[in-house]
């Protein structure tokens, strides 16, 4: 990967399921170190895009590159470098956080001698230090989401794909997840592709956003750029929600 190349890039990427187009000629890029808000209504094609970027589903047309690798040929390399937190993660309620992470680390073949400190590091990073030995069955949804993030951090990823990480959380739980994402980006230089409907939170931490509607990326840029495009004035005057709705109404 050259210095100027985007860490995530797609060119005319499409996916059809039978006769239905889920993603249509998608071309976009995410730069290293960015938090990119990946927005759009349900059914827009966001998850399908993430799956194609991870090499978990094959595009009908087009190409993609993640950390310099083609997901169709080098999915294993991408798996090593990208942490993916899907919308719903299931856990064994009887295990505590340490046991859960040991189980995952073992599955991923992590060296036993590194396991202890790596697990302690990610548990503290996501703020579960005080609950590390509490059974996961007794965790709140927000704590489970933080455990999910700890799990994907175990492999020390360069990139995180987060699909609705604040869904179903109360405002306090949601803000803690958003602050965690921001600190991972700032302190560990992790690039984040963040899919979320919580536009107010996305606006707080995203460097740029993309709006996907009916399989197409209808807008891509900083919130300021998109506000200028739609309203002729900068993003300080408008919320991301107002900008999003404007694009949405015009499709
Ligand atoms: P989003 O993540 O933005 O909600 P998805 O990528 O999940 O959107 O879905 C995009 C479209 O593709 C939807 O119409 C959905 O029903 C369809 N779709 C997704 N996965 C499949 C599948 N495995 N088989 C058939 N259709 C699918």
Summarize it.
Helices cover 39% and strands 23% of the residues. The protein has 251 residues and is of the alpha/beta class. A six-stranded mixed sheet has the order 5-6-7-3-8-9, with helices on both faces.
Q: Can you offer a commentary on this structure?
A:
The chain is α/β, with parallel strands linked by helices and 251 residues long. Helix content is 39%, strand content 23%. The chain has helices at residues 46-53, 75-81, 97-107, 112-125, 141-153, 171-188, 199-205, 223-231, 240-250; strands at residues 8-17, 20-30, 35-39, 61-66, 82-85, 159-163, 191-195, 208-213, 216-221. The strands form 2 sheets. A 6-stranded mixed beta sheet has the order 5-6-7-3-8-9, sandwiched between helices. Strands 2-1-4 form a 3-stranded antiparallel beta sheet, covered by helices on one side. The chain starts with 7 loop residues before the first strand and ends with a helix. The chain binds adenosine-5'-diphosphate. Residues 17, 20, 22, 40, 42-48 line the site of adenosine-5'-diphosphate (ADP).
Which features would summarize this protein structure in a list?
251 residues, alpha/beta, three-stranded antiparallel sheet, globular, binds adenosine-5'-diphosphate
């Amino acid at each position: 990967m050259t210095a100027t190349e985007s860490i995530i890039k797609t060119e005319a990427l499409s996916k059809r399921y039978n006769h239905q187009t889920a993603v249509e000629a998608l071309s976009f890029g995410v730069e290293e170190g960015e938090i990119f808000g990946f927005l759009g209504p349900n059914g827009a094609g966001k998850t399908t895009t993430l799956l194609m970027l991870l090499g978990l589903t094959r595009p009908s047309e087009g190409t993609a590159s993640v950390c310099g690798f083609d997901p169709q040929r080098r999915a294993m390399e991408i798996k090593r470098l990208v942490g993916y937190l899907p919308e719903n993660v299931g856990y064994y309620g009887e295990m505590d956080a340490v046991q859960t992470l040991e189980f995952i680390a073992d599955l991923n073949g992590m060296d036993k001698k590194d396991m202890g400190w790596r697990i302690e590091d990610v548990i503290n990073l996501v703020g579960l230090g005080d609950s590390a030995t509490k059974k996961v069955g007794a965790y709140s949804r927000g704590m489970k989401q933080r455990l999910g993030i700890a799990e994907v951090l175990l492999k020390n990823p360069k990139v995180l794909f987060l699909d609705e990480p604040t869904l179903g959380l109360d405002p306090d739980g949601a803000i803690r997840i958003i602050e965690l994402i921001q600190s991972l980006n700032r302190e560990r230089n992790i690039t984040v592709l963040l899919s979320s409907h919580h536009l107010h939170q996305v606006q707080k931490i995203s460097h740029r956003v993309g709006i996907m509607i009916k399989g197409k990326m209808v807008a891509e840029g900083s919130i300021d750029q998109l506000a200028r495009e739609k309203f002729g004035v900068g993003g300080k005057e408008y919320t991301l929600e107002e900008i999003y709705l404007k694009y949405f109404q015009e499709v």
